[in-house]
Specification:
The chain has 610 residues and is α+β, with helices and mostly antiparallel strands. The protein has seven helices and 35 strands. The longest helix has 64 residues. InterPro entries: Chloro_Bact_Ser_Proteases, FHA_dom, Peptidase_S1_PA, Peptidase_S1_PA_chymotrypsin, SMAD_FHA_dom_sf.
Length: 610
C-alpha cells in the first residue's frame, strides 16, 4: 500500500534560522511559498534576512503517492534562487537532500520529505578524486598478482629448455621450496607496490588538499575584498544622498507596526450629561408624531435660534439620554501610563454634539406665557424638519458643556425663573459631563484597564488620560518640532471599526462550572499614506487673517480607517509621531481624513508653562 507524504522537512543551514528544523504538513496543500512576507509557508526575518524578497520562491507539488514530485521556481526575486549552487531558471525538479539558497550568500536550507516514497530518491553523487585514486590502488594489486603468476610460468619454461639441449639432467617442474620462494618474492613486490600506491594517494590528497585550501582561502580573500569595496562604494553613494531623501526612505510600515503596535491602545468610553445644580441627568424629549417618535426641538424667540427640548424628567422612559459611547484609539507617551487620544473620544461633552437621535425632528415655537392669574401657553402646530437644512445649523454646533435651557415636560417654556430665554441675564442652566466608562485595551490583550481624564486641549481635538500600570510600558516617540511636508510618507496605527476582527473561544472554570465564551482579540491595524495638504488655524499676517474650516490640521491620503481610529498615532518615516488621527469629512463618495499636529498633545504634558 502506498504511504502518502505527510510533511516537508526544511533544515536551515544559514541565515536568521540557522540550525532550525521546520516540519510543514502537506495535507491538501499544493504550493509552499518562500519569502519575507509573514504569510509565507517558509517565512524569513524581514530585517535579518534582507537579501530575501517578500515573495522569493515557490515549491509546487504535483502527482500523488509514489508518483509525487516537487518543483522549485523563482517568484521574480531580486537576488535569484539557487539549487545546489546553480541559479534556477524556470521550474526545476526538487529532490531529497537538495540545497536551496535564496540569493547569493543568502540563507541556505536543505529539502526533504517524510516518509519518502519508494521512487523518490536523492540525486546520484558523482565520483570524485578520492574514488579514482582508490580504483588505481586496486588495479595495482591486481597487476602485482598477475606478475607473480607470470614469473612462475617463465621459470618452468626455462628449466624444460635446458634439458632438451642435452645438458645435465634437471628436475622437471618447480620444487616446492622454489614455488614458496617465488610466491614470497611476488607477495613482497605486491606489498611494496600497494604501499607505494597508498603513499601516492596520501601524498596526492595532502598536496591536493593544501592546494585546494589555499585556492579557497584566496577566493575568500578575493570575495571579502570585493564586499568591502562594494560597501565602501555604497557608503559613499549614501553619503551623497540628501538628508530629506534618507528621511523618506526611513522605517517601513511593518517595522513601525512591529515596534509600536503594543504602544497603541483601543479606548472604550461612555459619557453622560448632568444638570450641575440638581445632579440629575439631562434628557432630550421625544414626541410621538403621526405614529412615529421624533426628537423635539424649540424655536426660541428674538432670533435666538433652535435648541433641543431638554428636560430633567422622563416619566414614560421615552426620552433620549444626552451622552455618547463607542471606541477610539490612543497611544502611550510615557512609561508611567500617560496616553494621548482625541478630545471627542475622552471628553465628548466638550465638542459639538451633532444631531443625535436622527436626521429629522419636530420643531415647536416657544410661546411666552402671558402674565396674570392664568398662565397658560398657546402652542402653534409643530412641524417636521430636516436637521441637515442650513436653517438649523445651530443644532450641530451645540457643545453640551456650554449649558442650555431646561424646558418643562409638557410645554416648551423654560422651567427657570422669568420663563423667557434671555442670554443677557444668563438664565441658562449649567451642565457637566462625566465619563461613566473610560478604559483602554492594549494590542493582543483580553482585559481592559480603567483610565481617568487628566486634561483636554482648548485649541485642538486632543486629550490626555492616565492609567495605573504595575509594569513599565512601551511608549512612542513624539516629534512636535519636526517639519511636515506635503507628499511625505506617513503610517497610521489604530483600531478602526471597519477592520477584520479575530475571536478566540475560551473555556473557564469557576466553582466547578465550565463556561465557554467568545472573546475578541484586540489587534491594531496599520495603514500607510502621505500628507496630502496642510492647513493652519487662525493666523494673522500682513496680507490679512487666515484660517481653515477644519482648524490646524494635516490632511492625509489615508481613507481605509474610519470610526474607531480617532486618536491613533500618525508616524513619519523616521518612526516619530507627528499627529493624532482625528475627524474625517465626506463629500459624496469622496473622503478625506485629518490629523491634529502632535504639538497640541505635547502641550498637555506640560503642567507648568516654560
Amino acid at each position: 500500500m502506498t504511504t502518502p507524504t505527510e510533511r516537508i522537512i526544511i533544515r536551515h543551514l544559514s541565515g536568521s534560522k540557522a540550525n532550525q528544523i521546520e516540519q510543514l504538513p502537506v495535507g491538501d496543500a499544493r504550493e509552499f511559498t518562500i519569502g519575507r512576507d509573514p504569510t509565507s509557508k517558509i517565512a524569513f526575518d524581514p530585517v535579518g534576512d534582507s537579501v530575501v524578497s517578500r515573495k522569493h520562491a515557490l515549491i509546487r507539488i504535483t502527482g500523488e503517492g509514489d508518483n509525487i514530485s516537487f518543483k522549485l521556481s523563482d517568484a521574480g526575486s531580486s537576488n535569484g534562487t539557487f539549487l545546489n549552487g546553480e541559479r534556477v531558471n524556470g521550474e526545476v525538479e526538487l529532490l531529497p537532500e537538495d540545497t536551496i539558497e535564496l540569493g547569493a550568500k543568502g540563507p541556505k536550507f536543505t529539502f526533504d520529505v517524510q516518509p519518502r516514497p519508494a521512487s523518490f530518491a536523492a540525486r546520484t553523487k558523482v565520483i570524485g578524486v578520492a574514488d579514482t585514486a582508490a580504483t588505481r590502488v586496486i588495479k595495482t594489486a591486481e597487476a602485482a598478482a598477475s606478475t607473480a603468476v607470470n614469473a612462475a610460468a617463465t621459470g618452468a619454461s626455462t628449466a624444460a629448455g635446458a634439458n632438451a639441449d642435452g645438458g645435465a639432467p634437471k628436475k622437471v617442474g618447480i620444487g616446492h621450496e622454489t614455488v614458496q620462494r617465488l610466491i614470497g618474492e611476488e607477495r613482497g613486490k605486491a606489498n611494496r607496490n600497494m604501499t607505494g600506491a597508498i603513499a601516492a594517494v596520501v601524498a596526492f590528497f595532502v598536496l591536493g588538499g593544501a592546494a585546494l585550501y589555499w585556492a579557497q582561502h584566496r577566493e575568500l580573500e578575493r570575495r571579502d575584498a570585493e564586499d568591502k569595496l562594494a560597501q565602501t562604494e555604497t557608503d559613499e553613494r549614501l553619503s551623497r544622498i540628501p538628508g530629506d531623501v534618507n528621511l523618506k526612505i526611513g522605517m517601513k510600515p511593518r517595522e513601525i507596526y512591529d515596534k509600536y503596535a503594543k504602544a497603541t491602545v483601543q479606548v472604550g468610553m461612555m459619557w453622560r450629561l448632568y444638570d450641575k445644580q440638581t445632579g440629575r441627568p439631562i434628557q432630550h424629549k421625544t414626541i410621538d408624531y403621526k405614529g412615529r417618535r421624533y426628537p423635539a426641538y424649540v424655536q426660541l424667540p428674538n432670533n435666538l435660534g433652535v435648541v433641543r427640548w431638554l428636560t430633567l424628567e422622563d416619566d414614560h422612559i421615552t426620552n433620549l439620554m444626552v451622552g455618547g459611547g463607542g471606541t477610539g484609539s490612543g497611544f502611550v507617551i510615557s512609561e508611567q501610563g500617560y496616553i494621548l487620544t482625541n478630545k471627542h473620544v475622552a471628553a465628548g461633552w466638550q465638542v459639538a454634539y451633532g444631531a443625535e437621535g436622527g436626521r429629522e425632528g419636530i420643531l415647536y415655537d416657544y410661546v411666552v406665557v402671558a402674565s396674570g392669574k392664568k398662565r397658560k401657553a398657546k402652542f402653534k402646530e409643530p412641524k417636521l424638519i430636516d436637521l441637515y437644512d442650513s436653517a438649523y445649523s445651530d443644532v450641530f454646533h451645540w457643545i453640551p458643556e456650554s449649558g442650555g435651557y431646561i424646558f418643562k415636560t409638557d410645554d416648551p417654556t423654560t422651567a427657570l425663573a422669568g420663563n423667557t430665554p434671555d442670554p443677557n441675564s444668563n438664565n441658562k442652566a449649567s451642565f457637566v459631563g462625566r465619563n461613566e466608562v473610560l478604559e483602554v485595551k492594549f494590542h493582543g490583550s483580553r482585559l481592559g484597564v480603567n483610565a481617568s481624564l487628566v486634561r483636554t486641549s482648548a485649541d485642538a481635538d486632543a486629550a490626555l488620560v492616565k492609567i495605573d500600570s504595575p509594569q513599565t510600558l512601551t511608549k512612542v516617540d513624539m516629534a512636535p518640532n519636526a517639519p511636515v511636508e506635503i507628499g511625505e510618507n506617513i503610517t497610521v496605527l489604530g483600531y478602526p471599526a471597519v477592520s477584520v476582527e479575530n475571536f478566540v473561544l475560551r473555556q473557564t472554570e469557576e466553582r466547578g462550572r465550565i463556561r465557554s465564551q467568545l472573546e475578541k482579540i484586540t489587534e491594531a491595524t496599520v495603514t500607510e499614506g502621505i500628507v496630502s495638504k496642510t492647513a493652519s488655524g487662525v493666523k494673522s499676517t500682513e496680507g490679512g487673517t487666515f484660517a481653515s474650516d477644519m482648524g490646524d490640521v494635516y490632511q492625509l491620503s489615508v481613507v481605509a480607517t474610519g470610526s474607531g481610529n480617532s486618536g491613533g498615532p500618525v508616524f513619519n518615516s523616521s518612526g516619530k509621531v507627528i499627529g493624532l488621527f482625528t475627524y474625517s469629512r465626506n463629500v459624496g463618495d469622496t473622503k478625506a481624513t485629518m490629523a491634529v499636529p502632535i504639538k497640541y498633545g505635547a502641550e498637555l504634558t506640560q503642567a507648568q508653562r516654560e
